[in-house]
Amino acid sequence: MTRRRIAILISGRGSNMVSLIEAASAADFPADIALVLSNRPDAGGLERARQAGIEALSIDHKAYSTRESFEEALDAALSERGIDFICLAGFMRVLTPWFVERWAGRMVNIHPSLLPLFRGTHTHQRALEEGVLVHGCTVHFVVPELDAGPIVAQAVVPVVPGDTEDTLATRVLAQEHTLYPQALRLICEGRARLDGGKVVFADVWSAEDSLRSPR
């Protein structure tokens, strides 16, 4: 089995990073976490990556006069290490079309909503304000338009009476930690691939299950 070399880009504590590292520790996982990279030198996830024996690198975006020069340094670091695929995991920078196109089809993100609902930030608050009864998270390929890329996988949670932004975020985050490794496995095994701007799946799954809220 050929394992693809993965870079995880973070800006903070890296909780989704940890779930990917743990999944990749399995002998049958088709990806190797080769690098964790942050735009913030003080990101907590860098030390967690080092503790797991993974190279951890910071490239401080504040040290660059333009967004483009920062991304050129980012791209150079990734290319030098032979990275095949990028996972964004709480990377709080909007990437330019140049960088996105350079890594087209080789970069995914996890977003805390059921896209295309609630693109951008404050997704849990907006879900509660809109009164939706289900919410969740999405893994998608990255395209120049924010949170608009082809969808690889989604997980759904109920929104229950009394939910707050924090309680809903906690429930969604637990699903993120399961969904992201599953989506990365699908991609690296070739069971989910981009074709004509859409994700094509090799497997067929049951349509019998459903989540209803309220039950």
- The amount of beta strand, in percent, is 15-25%
Class from helix and strand fractions: alpha/beta
Number of distinct helices: 6
Order of helices and strands: EHEHEHEHEHEEHEE
Number of separate strands:
9
Organism: Microvirga alba
GO biological process, one term: 'de novo' IMP biosynthetic process
Binding site for N(1)-(5-phospho-beta-D-ribosyl)glycinamide: 14-16
Site (Raises pKa of active site His): 147
What does this structure look like?
The protein has 215 residues and is an alpha/beta fold. The chain has helices at 15-24, 44-51, 67-80, 97-102, 123-130, 165-188; strands at 4-10, 31-38, 55-58, 85-88, 107-111, 134-141, 151-158, 192-195, 198-201. Helices cover 33% and strands 24% of the residues. Strands 3-2-1-4-5-6-7 form a 7-stranded mixed beta sheet, with helices on one face. Strands 8-9 form a two-stranded antiparallel ribbon. The longest helix is centred in the last third of the chain and has 24 residues, at 165-188. The chain is globular. The protein starts with a strand and ends in a 14-residue tail after the last strand.
